[in-house]
Design brief:
The chain is mainly alpha-helical. Helices cover about 65% and strands about 10% of the residues. It has 6 helices and 3 strands. A 3-stranded antiparallel β-sheet has the order 1-3-2. Strand 2 and strand 3 form a beta hairpin. Helix 1 crosses helix 5 (about 115-135) and helix 2 crosses helix 5. It is globular.
């Protein structure tokens, strides 16, 4: 079997930029996977919460009056079904509480408990320390440029998707 060469990896009818666009997509995925895996492993080992639970607590910490499960789902960018099970498990662990919304008996308001807030604050400090450990040697100007480029790419994709839908 002949191993593919760099040139043969891209079909000839594809523009040369197709390969660079795929490389960019894969680089973003690789970076996300690496950081997510490391952070998740450390957060579970040291605080007993996954990054998913950390994200829930972060959203609820930012909104002390609570969020409906629907709003929490939108902010986390996951389906309502995913949030329902997660909320149920986190309530059983006394990290959050669920209450019926006073103005809509069908809606559930989710709030962090004191245990949840304390857990979040301790985990957030460690989260920030780990990110500094892993990314701190990268100059701020470089990180700022990366953030700006990713924001620009995000906006371009969102705009193109909106145009496609219309």
């Amino acid at each position: 079997m002949i191993a593919p060469t760099q040139e043969s990896a891209v079909p000839p009818q594809q523009p040369a930029s197709r390969n660079l666009q795929s490389q960019t997509w894969n680089a973003v995925l690789d970076f996300h996977r690496e950081l997510f895996t490391r952070l998740n492993r450390r957060m579970i080992a040291e605080f007993g919460i996954s990054l998913t639970r950390f994200d829930v607590l972060a959203q609820l910490y930012a909104c002390p009056d609570g969020l409906t499960q629907g709003e929490l789902s939108r902010r986390l960018k996951v389906t309502g079904g995913n949030v329902s099970g997660l909320v149920r498990r986190m309530a059983a662990e006394n990290l959050i509480v669920r209450d019926t919304a006073p103005d809509d008996r069908r809606a559930v308001i989710v709030r962090a408990t004191q245990t949840g807030r304390d857990t979040f604050l301790a985990a957030r400090a460690h989260h920030d320390t780990l990110l500094h450990e892993w990314l701190g040697s990268t100059p701020d100007s470089h990180l700022t440029a990366i953030c700006a480029e990713l924001a620009d790419l995000t906006a371009r994709v969102a705009t193109q998707e909106e145009e496609h839908i219309q």
